[in-house]
Amino acid sequence: MFKRLLFVILFFLSFNLFGQDIDQLRNKASNSSDSELIVFIQKAKDQGLSLVNAEKQLILIGGKAEEIKKLRNLWNKKLPKSDSEFVEGSDEIKSQFGETEAFSKDSLDIKDGELKRFGSDFFKNKNITESPQLFVATPIDYRLGPGDELIINLFGASENTYSVQISRNGNVKFDKLAPVYLSGLSIRAASSRLKSRLSKIYTGLNSNNPVDKVDLELSLQKARSIVVNITGQVEAPGTYTISGFSSVLNALYAAGGPNEVGTYRDIKVIRSGKIVYNVDLYDYFANGIYPNIYLRDQDVILVKPYQIQTELVSGFKQLSLFEMKKNETVSDLINLSGGLSSKAFKSTIFIERFDNFSKSILELDRNNFSNSSFVDGDKVSFKEIKDENISGVVKIGGAVNLEGSFQLGNNKNILELINSAKGFSIDKLGVNAILYRNENGLNNQSLSINIEKNSDLLTTLQENDSLYIPSTKDILFDQFIEIKGEVNFPKEIDFKYGLTITDLIIFSGGLTPYANKNDIRIFRNTSNSGGDEVTKEIIVELDDNLIPNQNIILQPDDIVTVNTFPYRIENKFYNIKGEVALPGLYSIKRKNYSVYDAINENIEFLNSASVGGISILRDSIKIPVNGNKLISQGSKSKYNFELVSGDEINIPAKNNTVIISGEVQQEGIINIDKPISAKMAIESVGGFTNKSVKKEVYVEYQNGYRKVTKSFLFFKLYPRVYPGSKVVVPERDENRDKTSVGEIVGYTTSLVSIIALIKSL
């Protein structure tokens, strides 16, 4: 076995692979998409590899069973075009805005509409309401109008409270005073006017004497409703009735916000034909400055189409569609978007721009950020620095205790790097390792290293070298261990070297209370030994800490069973439903437990119970029980049935009706107080039709038992009908009574043959 594994390792080392990060080598297979596997297959075929050899390569770089299966399925199929611009290992590399890496995340060629508009999520948030918060202090700049309800509190030398509503004319009225006009005034101005007018009644309002002084407090009890018109590029333009407390943001939320072409940066509030406000929603979304502009009745909110929209492709903290004003620059865009990502190369910005019938790429350095503006449709990106672009490091992975990157200065040769990785792990495979050597991001060579040879261990390392120590995990796939029996979660578990029975029990959720720790069995397939024995059975005992009495390391395809205690039988139950004193779940107490036992021990019939209608429901099958005869004949009765777990005993209520259905003149229900014949029941609903099959009439009794009509000579013996029964008259099959052409030909042929035979005699 060891020689075979060594051959696989040496075969793999003969191929010149791309040098790359160890994590990438393993994750490329472990998390590979179909497109990445296509690249792998194309490369393998270009090198002349067979499917078997390609599988070995994929296993050694971390491929799991799922990826191996995908590889086999894709190998002989016509491969679709890969998402990458080139195949790894090919001589021809197509440039993509200066990038040469497949699956580049920095590509500016992203389809329109894939990104959301910045701020659009606000208007799609179901947790936000368009209604303003009413139970807050009245803003000092709120403008009063008709319909507002006010509370005026006077306190001090005189105390009084007025609750008034501004009329349609804009006034409020007090006894002994002329109407006071408040419409259009702010809370502060209205307080001043009310203080002036009410001072004619309360002279203390103008007094400075603390004893005589009266103070006035004005507050809004209920805001009026206003009607605003929202038009232009919004999701739901129209006329809306909203609270007078509503701001532009509340109103826009009610209308669904700007649509895909509506502006966020220049929303106009039009009052009496004039623009009174220009609202920039980005002040709120980006800087938290709330557009606290209160609307008035008959205001118009106009949302025009945006003028400039840019698409942030990469390098920003927020990748969205951002609307820009004509005078805004790259620096403004960076601030609006929340800044650049930590991996962005911040000195240069790339802008993909459409100019008439062509497309160009602008490259601007940091010095031009503050004086460079945008045009509509620009796609903007900062390149991102790759994780692997770390200077002065070497890498190690595979069968070591610490995988990752280490400083080249402290690890000048392979031996020092292995020591920094805290030595080999127990899953080390063979004596050969692979050293990938990189220069300028390109793989120049793959070196075979004998990790037991001093001269190889003293090999001098270079910057970006990657050392991979093969592991047994790279070879084994599609191998499992199964555990069954008295564990909480019986399952198949991926095989790993070193697994013990204790590990397996823990992985399966532990033992159940009925597990017999003295009877754990391991079934191991030994057919490959060539002897007569096919399966070896090993019996193991566990102590209270789940420690086995034998130190056995599990092998691939082992089956472990945890048995229960001797003679133990699972509890079994049946259910009682219907017209009984105590319906519910009951246990099957002993072997051969029957319906008769259940009736004697657990069933007390109600007066409404139909004892003759008792039935058992088992696996959706209704089993009729003649309750009356069962009770009278005892446990030896042929109507007694042995119960099994899950049975349901049904005791229906008495029912004096009979249902007649099928091919009768009129289907119906009749009442009877004593048994009658089926023919009499059918005649009570008009009798048979010309399609009735009289000889197949049957009666279904309340317990599910069916009885069919019998014939004797020319007589039909119809079954008796008892209360609660159903009488069914089947329909004649017209085709069954017709003689087909084939049958006629057959009859004719037979007749001719008989006549010919008679003549020959």
Q: Give the beta-strand count.
A: 39
Q: Provide the β-strand percentage band.
A: 25-35%
Measured distance between first and last alpha carbons: 87 Å
User: In which order are the strands of the major sheet placed?
Assistant: 7-6-10-8-9
Q: Under the CATH scheme, which architecture of the domain at 120-131 and 225-303 would be assigned?
A: Roll
Write the layout of secondary structure elements.
Layout: H1 2-13, H2 22-30, H3 34-46, H4 51-60, H5 65-75, H6 120-123, E1 149-156, E2 160-165, E3 171-172, E4 180-181, H7 187-198, E5 214-222, E6 225-232, E7 238-243, H8 248-254, E8 267-271, E9 274-279, H9 282-287, E10 300-303, E11 308-314, E12 321-324, H10 330-336, E13 348-355, E14 358-365, E15 379-381, E16 393-398, E17 404-407, H11 414-420, E18 432-439, E19 442-450, H12 454-457, E20 466-469, E21 480-485, E22 491-494, H13 501-507, E23 515-525, E24 535-540, E25 559-564, E26 573-578, E27 584-587, H14 595-602, E28 615-618, E29 621-624, H15 627-633, E30 648-651, E31 657-662, E32 668-671, E33 676-677, H16 678-683, E34 698-700, E35 706-708, E36 710-712, E37 715-717, E38 720-721, E39 726-729, H17 734-737, H18 741-760
Parallel strand pairs: 6-10, 11-15, 16-20, 21-25, 26-30, 31-39
Antiparallel strand pairs: 1-2, 1-5, 3-4, 6-7, 8-9, 8-10, 11-12, 13-14, 13-15, 16-17, 18-19, 18-20, 21-22, 23-24, 23-25, 26-27, 28-29, 28-30, 31-32, 33-38, 34-35, 34-39, 36-37
Helix pairs in contact: 1-4, 3-5, 4-5
